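WARN no homologs supplied; continuing
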Amino acid sequence: MTRLVQVPRKPASELAAQNPGSTENARAFRPTPGARKTERRSGIPEQPATEGPGGPSVRINLGRVFKAEGGNYFLLLGTTLFLVVFGLVMVLSSSSVDSFLADMGFFGGILRQGMFALIGIPLMLVVSRLPLAFWRRMAWPAMLITCFFQFLVVATGLGVGTGGNTNWLNIFGIQFQPSEGIKVALVIWLGVILSKKQHQLHDWKHVFIPVFGVGGGAALLVMLGGDLGTTMIMAGILFGALFFAGVKLRLLIVPLLVGVGAAVVLAIVSPNRLTRITSFLHEGCTELVGEISSSCWQPLHGTWALANGGIFGVGLGNSAAKWSWLPAADNDYIFAIIGEELGLIGCIVVLGMFILLAFAFLRIMRAATTVQAKVSTAAAMVWIIGQAFVNIGVVLGVFPVLGVPLPLISAGGTALLTTLVAIGIVLSFARGDRSSDAEGAFSPNDLHDTNLVEADRA
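OK structure emitted
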């Protein structure tokens, strides 16, 4: 009778230490070339042939840091970098006139945006190295800290208003937008909460109370500042995370109808938002108005800029609308400048890149091995892709003016940094779900790293 026993494989160095005088043991346990290739493919660092002060550890760490990533990782990273570089080019073109008029020179806008890009891209890469367990620990602190800063915006005199909304915070001369940070916190927090509730998603009390209680409360803080556009994006993040987590559609119908009704009421009760809606319906906009502050001015000139571009555009840097004709030319309406300078072809390229970005998110969701990674990736996708198409829809006249920037392309330091951090979180999932509590634990896969030896051979 033959009995199989699992004996863990011991490295040759340990065997040699046990029997220094034997060279046969070293030869017997010397890894073959095929074994070395298997180790390289699996990402396990190979022991160096020579040892010196600090040498082995340095080589192992570098091997782990620079090991090859998967195709989904590079697809998302490459698309993101393309959009960031493209955005810098368009910010340079669209902001040059306004920067000069603001006594910042022709390159004031691009220098500011470039500084945030130089900070955001390395930050994204650093975030992409963090394990899954880190995001579990950071979920609640991130929500509490970002909501605290948003509370300072609406409850103290530190809030700064722009365009009828109070959504900026100025502390010691540093101005930023806490609502953008809440979006990142929602991406992390929703993944953690819904992964804990994955076996209770059929019970509305276990889903709606935490999600709409905490996440809805965060969105309400933003709404208190008057920013309906950002609030709608955050509501989309909540519903998108619930949908991709597996919550039944029949459970989402009632809160979705309530949210739509609340958005309509908030739009009607605000004179500023009601004016935007009437201008969207082309009431009073049949003739050119003489004041630039009119609500009809921006959508009209955005449409004319797109029409002026035609198929091939007027050429990069040759926009006429950016000469103080189109407000927020480098921000909310940068897509109109893209259409004017690069034409229909440039607009199609931008749309295609965001579709490719959505495809990368979907591939990472499909490959995710945990509910947390899947839900957080879905939340980031709904945020970035949804906001992009809302912005483009506003410029095309499909939606009324909502005041949301085009992700990765529009000027805005806080928006660029937070979007890159969210993509960095998804990149960390693309590298693999590696929670610290799972490291060192035995799993069935570990059987591949042991040798089955015949202990009793007939």
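The first strand starts at residue 4 and ends at 8.
OK
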